[in-house]
Fold this sequence. Notes:
The protein has helices spanning 21-29, 47-50, 72-79, 104-114, 128-131, 148-154, 204-207, 274-291, 301-316, 320-336, 347-364, 368-374, 378-393, and strands at 2-3, 14-15, 35-37, 52-54, 68-70, 83-93, 96-103, 121-126, 163-168, 173-177, 184-199, 235-239, 244-247, 252-268. By secondary structure, it is α+β, with helices and mostly antiparallel strands. The protein has two domains: 2-269, Cupin (Jelly Rolls, Sandwich), CATH 2.60.120.650; 273-393, no CATH class. Strands 1, 2, 3, 6, 7, 8, 9, 10, 11, 12, 13 and 14 form a twelve-stranded mixed sheet that branches. It has a two-stranded antiparallel ribbon with strand order 4-5. Residues 129-285 form the JmjC domain.
Amino acid sequence: MMAGSTDDELDIPYYEIPPTYDEFLKNHLIPNKPCIIGPSFTQSWKANKEWILANDSSNENLQHQPKYKPNYMHLSQQYGAAQGQVARCNKRHFTDQERTEMSFAEFCAKWQEDDGKPSLDYLKDLHLQKTFPDDKFYTVPDLFEDDWLNEYWLQQKGDDDYRFAYFGGHTTFTPLHADVYRSYSWSSNICGMKKWIMFPPGQESLYQDKFNNAVYDVRDVDTIQFTKFDQAKKIEIYQKDGETVFVPSNWFHQVENIGAAISINHNWINASNLMFTYASLRKDWNDCKHAIEDLQDSMTPMEFLQECQNLLMVHSGWDWRIFLNMMAHVVANRVKQPNVPIHQPDLAWQMDRIDEVLNQWKQDEPRLIDYFEGNDLMSVYIQLRLDISSIRQK
Ligand SMILES: O=C(O)CCC(=O)C(=O)O
Ligand SMILES: [Fe+2]
């Protein structure tokens, strides 16, 4: 399962039978360590029955052969109307790939033409469940139920969500990155295989330059720009048809498809990685402040803070308001229904994690309470504190 390293610390556990929630919490969520779970975990999904066909055309150039391939016709008929962003994998656009908007039907026609041969088009981050809310083509596995990001966004009247489907041809790939808001992700393969290259956190300086630009493609690194890249410890994983990978917070990773591949994945946040998420918000915030520091003298401190929030929203897709609202929303839900989701850490432990983040936030930002007051957020903040105490008293 693992190659490319002889370091025991870098061994990734493989669970043929899914771990219990308590094992998963103790060994993966809290210590922030990856794992792979075998196909029994998701075998009941409709996607695993209706979206795929046996792959009988073996490609002798491949060391790893996918067992299944997409049922292109069925997918195109069922979901053809969905609109998505198709990445051109040979065209770099800053830190990502160039993307073109097209319908799923248009994409499927090209994908089927390539049918397992090397291909450049990769339909990513498709909000398929949001587009077809009544089609239960998968269910969130119980280990991943405690997901504050989607719990919050789905109750904001469908504004946004972090539930995706990926459809790509052989050799399509996702460049090196760490996930949005330093969330966790989970990724289940429906068909095809994925080669993951993962970097345990703490060695960012080996693959980021002094301007924080990261390596784009680990297979083609400019060693003049990234002189120490070779020293980075990395893990290679081959994720086969039906398997699920848990990607911890803050782990940089690059992913390459082997054969025509389909996967479903979510980004998610909960009490176990909330501090990572806060740290990412703080970093984005500092970047925004530096970007417009010239304006600082021409404004009051509150005006400057507000301007930075606007920039944060444009650049990172969120701001302090959203972060506070997400925590307040989830804690209010736990007051009303403490046992939803069913699988979650002890509630008092979760409240401690939120407290830690709130205290850190206040310490980092002396004007935080002024900002809440100036933006109608004081009542949200007070209610959050009250809800935390009421959960603790139970
Ligand atoms: O499958 C891919 O191409 C990328 C998936 C990914 O980056 C993730 O699940 O975090
Ligand atoms: Fe990712």
